[in-house]
User: Fold Phospho-2-dehydro-3-deoxyheptonate aldolase from Saccharopolyspora halophila.
Amino acid sequence: MTLIAGPADASPELDDQRITAVDPLISPALLRQEHPMNPAVAKTVAHGRSAAADILAGRDDRLLIVVGPCSVHDPDAALDYARRLARHAAVVQDEVHVVMRVYFEKPRTTLGWKGLINDPDLDGSFAVNKGLRAARRLLLDIGALGLPVGCEFLDPITPQFIADAVSWGSIGARTAASQVHRQLCSALSMPVGIKNSTEGDVQVAVDATRAAAASHVFSGVTADGLAALLTTAGNEDCHVILRGTSGGPNYDAATVSDVLARLRAAGLPERVVVDASHGNSGKDHELQAAVIAELADRIAAGERGIVGLMLESFLAAGRQDLALGEADSLAYGRSITDACLDWPTTEALLDRLAAAVRTNRR
Ligand SMILES: O=C[C@H](O)[C@H](O)COP(=O)(O)O
Ligand SMILES: C=C(OP(=O)(O)O)C(=O)O
Assistant:
């Protein structure tokens, strides 16, 4: 159904000249009623958040590991992956706090599939209400496994639909400079990592972390989907993610120490998370394993400041192209966005990181 856009007194020649359709959007409250939070998942979410915050604050000496697919395009495959990850997270839990990357919103450099919420049928039909339902259902299913999840927040309205089920958030390289996203961070109930820019500007992430820690007043929507002014408390659990640059990696010890100095100068806690994918591996999943191996050695040797790592990993290695409308021909468990490590390699890297933490403790 397509509704007529604009208020009754709209001037058709002035208003909405480039809006071609207006369709109903489910309200956050209705979605939450359809897929309600339950006590077991709530416990997973709360524990996931507090453990991440403790690691970021140095109260817990484990590593925060955000690991999972670049994007979710097949909820069944994501749940299959989550079951394996939940089992292995329990094995390494004394050294590593595992949060599964469950990314539903993809910021594109130019154009491309924008994620499960925007286009759940992978065919350009943009069934957003269906996408929101699939996303929330999956978050609750993963939470029921006892595994906390992390999401990138891109559309400033999306958190109202799903954020109660999320333990860690991210702001991507393409939106770290955005005031809208910094304000959003100041409102979010979980720790949020903010990335350096694609070109390699790390100060933008430091500035965003500082802005997000402050209180803001901005417009958003309520659970009923009505516009409202929101006043926020500020989020002290925001932190910088080094994701590499379009010119190469930025996880070297000198850059880490430069960022720690910038954080200190800004009056912020000296901690960073390193994303082993994206610019740090040139989106080459095999290089990602080498990045993790090097970081594990540095952590074992006692390098300070790196409190967490991000890995892009799925069931099968690499990536595949999506032809819109031909989702049936996709290989199971392989990324349709950036290349991912496969599951056996991921398991081995989690073990290696756990060993690095044990060595560092000794
Ligand atoms: O993480 C995923 C991608 O790197 C990001 O969405 C940009 O992708 P694109 O350059 O393929 O559009
Ligand atoms: C889009 C992502 O990364 P970046 O913002 O670093 O490109 C991502 O982590 O999915």
The mean pLDDT is 96. Residues 70, 106-109, 112, 278, 337-338 surround erythose-4-phosphate (ligand 1) (CB under 6 Å). Residues 39-57 form the longest helix (19 residues). The domain at 28-52+61-361 is CATH 3.20.20.70 (TIM Barrel).
